[in-house]
Specification:
Number of helices: 12
Distance between the termini: 20 Å
Helix content: 25-40%
Radius of gyration: 23 Å
Largest sheet: 8 strands, parallel
Strand content: 15-25%
Number of strands: 20
Shape: elongated
Strand order of the largest sheet: 8-7-6-5-4-3-2-9
Length: about 375
């Protein structure tokens, strides 16, 4: 029997979250952001749950090519544009839209020979200070692009740095709208946080929203709001089983470095999951875990292949009992990936993307949350 650790991708949760993003921004089109192998969920699997999107946004031409092989014929946007002049040939061949954020990318377009003019999104740096033209340089960039026969249509895009916090988006929105006010073209401003918190304002939601992590059922502004507050459903479950049980006496320690010391007699369970699988090594004692759908906590340092949990309040737990590291548990239980990440001092995005290639992944096509005993293949969609 294989090692009892697996990740499940809930396709109906992806469908639900996409529909919710659309409901947050009426009249806007939706880019489903599937960069980083669909936030660790697998591009092919996520595509099955997100194909109702108006377009897909990502970084890599290889992933764009995979979407075309999956028979996606709609728009695909390269969020960082091209990285080399030769990439424009692939954009022409695959019909890709791409962001333009620097003068060199305009130079490459000007030298590009193509029969099919490109659709581009000109990016403004409104305060994030990663990619994009400054507001002062934006109009000249637009004039250059508009004059090129290689360019069919110019749209406008920016990215918010603080849509998930009280600082908000007002200043960046004002900058963007002021410097695009008299320019014709579609606009895209909203990431997940802005979609959930601000897309009710038509000036903010623009023509295209770009939901990312919300599609996968995590909250972009946790712990202020959790996924349930935003009516999101977790799209990934990481689950395993107990593979060992130990009985400790006062003074006994657990794991490398003896980080945890028992102060009373206690029972602990050993779980087949470790940092080589993507579970955070630095997760502290007390990080929540579900055992047979009941909450307990991590004890001791996470090792490469195993971690330990407190079974003091779970006398029925035994070798083979199901353990949920995050996501959908048995008996209707749920453990938020955001909560696990918060205990570990990181964010849900990182945990999704950190799932190791050695962890088998199944895509569930049945009712949301439906799954059989760990190790028993449910109805699934091929990876």
């Amino acid at each position: 029997m294989p090692r009892p650790l697996e990740a499940l991708v809930h396709l109906d949760a992806l469908q639900h979250n996409l529909a919710h993003a659309r409901a947050c921004a009426p009249d806007a089109q939706v880019w489903a952001v599937v960069k980083a192998n669909a936030y660790g969920h697998g591009l092919t699997r996520a595509y099955e749950g997100l194909r109702a999107a108006d377009g897909f946004a990502l970084l890599d031409i290889a992933e764009a090519r995979k979407l075309r092989e999956l028979d996606w014929r709609g728009p695909i946007l390269l969020l960082e544009g091209v990285f080399d002049a030769r990439d424009l040939e692939a954009c022409s061949r695959l019909g890709l839209w791409h962001v333009v954020h620097c003068e060199q990318q305009i130079d490459w377009l000007a030298q590009h020979k193509t029969e099919w003019p490109h659709r581009v999104f000109l990016k403004m740096n409104t305060g994030m200070n990663r990619l994009g033209f400054t507001p002062q340089a934006f109009r000249n960039a637009w004039l250059r692009l508009s004059a090129l026969p290689q360019v069919d249509e110019v749209s406008f895009i920016t990215h918010f740095s603080d849509a998930d916090s009280d600082k908000g988006i007002a200043q960046q929105t004002d900058i963007f709208l002021t410097h695009t006010a008299d320019l014709s073209g579609e606009r895209s401003l909203c990431n997940s946080a802005a979609t959930l918190r601000h897309a009710h304002d038509p000036k903010v939601r623009g023509d295209w929203i770009r939901p990312g992590v919300m599609l996968y059922g995590a909250s972009p502004d946790y712990p202020e709001h959790d996924a349930t507050h935003w009516q999101l459903q977790p799209a990934m479950t990481l689950r395993s089983r107990l593979i060992g049980v130990q009985h400790l006496q006062p003074g006994d320690t657990v794991g490398y470095g003896s980080r945890f010391t028992a102060t009373q007699p206690m029972r602990i369970g050993v779980v087949a999951c470790g940092y080589a699988d993507g579970y955070p090594r630095h997760a502290p004692d007390g990080t929540p875990v579900l055992v047979d759908g009941q909450r307990t906590g991590l004890v001791g340092r996470v090792s490469m292949d195993m971690l330990a949990v407190d079974l003091g309040a779970l006398p029925q737990a035994h070798i083979g009992t199901e353990v949920t590291l995050w996501g959908q548990g048995p008996h209707g239980s749920t453990l938020s990936i955001d909560e696990v990440a918060w205990h570990a001092g990181t964010i849900g995005y990182e945990l999704m993307c950190a799932i190791s290639p050695r962890v088998p992944v199944q895509a569930l096509s049945g009712p949301h949350g439906a799954h059989g005993p760990t190790g028993t293949p449910p109805a699934s969609v091929a990876a």
